[in-house]
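DM between two lab members

TW: hey, do you still have the Glycosyl-hydrolase 114-associated domain-containing protein entry open?
JB: yeah, one sec
JB: this one, 420 aa:
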Amino acid sequence: MTLRGLVAALALAVAARAQEQAADVGGEDARQLLAVRDEDAARELAKLEEVCFCTAHPMEVVTGHVDASQSAGLKEMNLYGKEDQWKLYVEAETDSGHFEGNVVFDIPEYINLAKVKKYATNVNFRGEKAKGKKELWEIRTTRLGKRPKWEKLWDNKRVKAWQWTESWKQRSKKGKTFAAYVDDNNQFRFNVRTVKQNTENALFDYVDLCLYLAKGWKKPTAAPTNAPTPEPTAISTPAPTTGQTLDVPESLHTECFVPASLEVEQGWIGSEQTVEGLAKREMNEDSKNEAWNKIVEFHPETVDGKEGGVFYFDYHVGEISDPFQAYIKWNFRGQTTEYQLWKLSLYNYAADSWVCLGQTPNAAKSWRWIFREDRYIFRDASAKYVNDEGIARVRYATNSSLDASQLDFAKLCLKLPGSA
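TW: and the structure you got?
JB:
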């Protein structure tokens, strides 16, 4: 092999390894890794519109068993660490020594499938870590047609054994139209299965589908020739009732907000620090010495034998209607998740409950700044995430008093129906 050929081969190997590494980490961490290792791929992804869906159906079980009371367990990412709340996840039971089932997604009619350039999934899994094919779980897609073909997207080879592990996996179309994966009912399926017999049960807290779309992805809405074209509206015709899943709006725009106030329930913050320290991202991975007045340091404490820290950020978002998706962009420094976990949650005023936006990332290095963006897709039309005063509330909390943590940024972004 010539020197030029050797250099080219090495370059290809490095690029392939970067893609492999990016596929094995979760959420924003994968995007950041691609941005560092493969800037062209990152730029390509940034040009595409991201539209994500949750399933509106119970898991279709082919072999094995899923308890009917867990039918809604895949719709929200609720669980972290070793948390175990029965109705918040789906337990895939290998009663016959094997499991196979399908997670079904309804694809809106107005999406032009030819404009789908990539698709991805976020999976939150708890179970054994696969070693080779032993205890191996897979998520696959099926390219339909005369000769259906399975394509693996995810497996549990890089999870933490019996700890909730979030993974983000993407696949390029490679010239194949996405329509080849969608059936005549406009449904897309992820196939979940064990590879070998006698595999342990596994828990799934969340499985979503994200499409990355090129310009022109929305099909035009037909209108009578003698009437003006109506403004885009949500695709659901009947008014949603309690418990219904929200449909994806035909058009979305994003509005972002910084915290207006900070409240402490348990613990304390650094002296002379204020909520203004969360308004602007000042620190990066190379920042060794924090600018004290530009960050907020959160100290947990032990009260009556209960460890932890609980802090609230209030965002004045004003009068908004039907938010479809929420993003929390935050810059964190503290202990790794192995020793201490911090979680961000959004308050549902209607249900008096909290939904998880994100947690300190597994990729974080101890006391090194790491930026993260976590997404939550609203699903229940009866939920209320903004009160009558126009306030959305986020909780930042830990169940450990081991150490403090620091934030220098906490911006809440909402995707709303219609154009900006």
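TW: got it. Residues 48-213 form a domain with the Jelly Rolls fold (CATH 2.60.120.260). The chain has two domains: 48-213, 253-284+291-417.
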